[in-house]
Amino acid sequence: MASRSREVTSLNSWTTNIASTRAWKMSCDIHVPFAISSETLDQANFVLVNIQDDNGLVGVGEASPFPTLTGDNINGVLPVAEEILDHLKEMTPIAALRYLRTIREETFTSSPSAYVGVEMALWDLYGKQLGIPLAGIWGGRMYDKVTTDITMPIMTPNTVADFWALYKDHGFEVIKIKVSGHVSDDLDMIEALFKVVSRSTQVTLDGNQGYRLDDAKSLLARLAELGTVPLFFEQPLPADDWDGLKNLQDSTGIPVCLDETIITPEDAIRAVREKTAGMINLKIMKSGIEETSRIISVARSAGIALMIGGMLESEIAMGCSLQLACGFGGIQHFDLDTPFFLKKFVCSDSPWHANSATLVRPSGPGLGLSLAT
User: Of the CATH numbers 3.50.30.10, 1.10.150.20, 3.40.50.11810, 3.20.20.120, which one belongs to the domain with range 136-360?
Assistant: First the structure.
């Protein structure tokens, strides 16, 4: 690893070199448990990364593992992040990013979240060195704002009203409903939601691989009887059930959004070839920033719709996805809501501080965000 580090150091030396690095754990309490079909998180746990250059500019990144989705956990992220950072001293951000690509495969095996946290901090530092928002580097379209949905985790029907009370004034027009794979329980939860929101409210469903094909069809049929047609059904079936996912979309007419199924550009190419997806959910924490940009290119070339989301992330990682979305454009659905779940903000200011579904992209260089002191 060290020999490759020296080899890449000389590349793109016109920007300022990295002088120091730091990574540390952070936890935040959340308003409600973040429950999906496979796991429940009772607090947000992530590793923050700082990379400082010789001029004192600091790039910030975040590694946010969701164990059943990313395959790593908070205790494993920190040592991997520190190991990567140890090899970046005296490199420029671009040289460090090139080096990072050479260790991607082995690092993703150990901790994809750690890789992404370092990658994010390097891009943030690079943007700050250039004085350009990352949206101007990634795609360059520089859209000013997007509108996000709000996610309702799996919960008992009698807690739905309290959940909605937290967010009813934020102006959300779409609610993403996490479902468990148990048709009757999910119907009871959805019915409880429609007791506190208008029946015309737009919803999406997210199964996180928890459903079987017949049960997924049954849920959609029962919802149709109640007058509810979701915009799409995100990852209802196991990630490797390519035939079942295509069957569900073809037989019901409800677009299937692939999340856990699509990790790499090669996965996206397969989805295009087999006509499996009506939509692909982009997540930098599962794929990495540069790989996500390649997935965008594949989907666009095939006319597949895109959404962008994340794990249980703070404003740092969500802000990175916001910059990516505003840079590339052409994304149809935004699920950038998890900072709203945190009881305290990590940054001194951010789009989420406004408590609004409309997220205005920070105009400052890099991520445009600073950690709260």
Answer: 3.20.20.120
For 214-372, where are the E strands, in sequence order? 233-234, 256-258, 279-282, 305-308, 333-334, 358-360
Crossing angle (nearest 10°) for helices 315-328 and 289-302 = 40
User: Mean pLDDT in runs of 10 for the chain (373 residues)?
Assistant: 38 72 98 95 97 97 95 95 97 97 94 98 97 95 96 98 98 98 98 95 97 98 96 98 98 97 97 95 98 96 97 98 96 98 97 98 97 90
Question: Measured between alpha carbons, how far apart are the two ends of the chain, in Å?
Answer: 35
CATH classification code of 2-131? 3.30.390.10
- The predicted pLDDT at position 275 comes to 95
Q: Among candidates 257, 295, 261, 311, which has minimal Cα distance to 112?
A: 311
* Structure token digits, residue 339: 């900072």
Residue 348, SS3? coil
For residue 49, count CB atoms less than 10 angstroms from its CB and return exposed for 0-12, middle for 13-18, buried for 19 or more. Answer: buried
Q: pTM (2 decimals)?
A: 0.94
Tell me, what's the pLDDT at 200?
A: 87
DSSP state, 137? H
At 14 the pLDDT is: 52
**Nearest to 176, CA basis, from 227, 136, 230:** 230
Domain-wise residue ranges, the chain:
2-131, 136-360
